[in-house]
Amino acid sequence: LIIGKIADVPVAILSRHGPGHKINPTNVNYRANVWSLKEEGCTHILAVTACGSLRERIEPGHFVFPDQFIDRTAKRISTYFDGSDVQHVSMGEPFSSGIRNCLVQACTFLGFDFHDGGTVDSTRYGYRTWPGQAHRLPTEPGNKPTIRLLVFGAMNSALRRCRREAGCCDEVPSSRWHCLHR
C-alpha cells in the first residue's frame, strides 16, 4: 500500500495486479487486497478498471458507473466465509449509490463523458457461478428485471463480493476500448 493524502483526505493506493502489473485477474488475491485496505481504515474504495464497451454510445475514455453486475467467473475465491462460519451478505445493491452520485456530480462539473447505471458482465473466465454465500443478484437467472448490459470486465465480481463482506463500498469501471467492431 502507498499511503498519503489528496487535498487533505487520507488515501491508500493498492496495485491489485502487483508490481509491474504481472498478476492476471484470476490469480489476484481479492480477499487480501480488500482486507489490507480495511485494516488500514479504508471505508470507501474506488477501483478503476479497464473494461470493454457493449454499446456504441460508450466510447473509449468514457466513465461508466454501474449499479449491477453479472458474475460468470470461476476459480476466484470471493468470500471471507468459506469455512464453518456462515454469513449471508445482500448483493441486491452491490455498488454504493452515494459514491456513484458523488462521481456523477464530479464528472458533470468537470465536463467528463460518463454513463450512470447499467450492468457489468464478468464473462471473461468461464461460466456463471455464485461463489461465497452471497444471495443471488437481481440480474441473475430466476429474476426478471430488464438487464442493461453496458460493459464487460474481468475484475468486478470477486472484488465486489469481498468488498461487501468487508463492509466497504464501490467500484468504478472505466471504459477503455470497444469490442463491437472487432
- At the fourth level of CATH, the homologous superfamily is Nucleoside phosphorylase domain
* Rg, nearest Å: 16 Å
Strand content: 15-25%
Strand/helix succession: EEHEEEHEEEHE
Main sheet: strand order: 5-7-8-3-9
**Alpha-beta classification:** alpha/beta
| Low-confidence runs of at least 5 consecutive residues | 124-140, 142-146, 176-182
* Biggest sheet record: 5 strands, mixed
Name given to the CATH architecture = 3-Layer(aba) Sandwich
Number of strands: 9
Count of DSSP-assigned helices: 3
Q: Would you give an account of this structure?
A:
The chain has 182 residues and is α/β, with parallel strands linked by helices. The protein is 19% helix and 23% strand. The protein is built from three helices and nine strands, in the order E-E-H-E-E-E-H-E-E-E-H-E. It has one domain: Rossmann fold, CATH 3.40.50. Mean pLDDT is 72; it is low at 124-140, 142-146 and 176-182. Helix 1 (30-39) runs parallel beside helix 3. The N and C termini lie far apart (37 Å). 32% of the residues are buried. It has a five-stranded mixed β-sheet with strand order 5-7-8-3-9, with helices on one face.
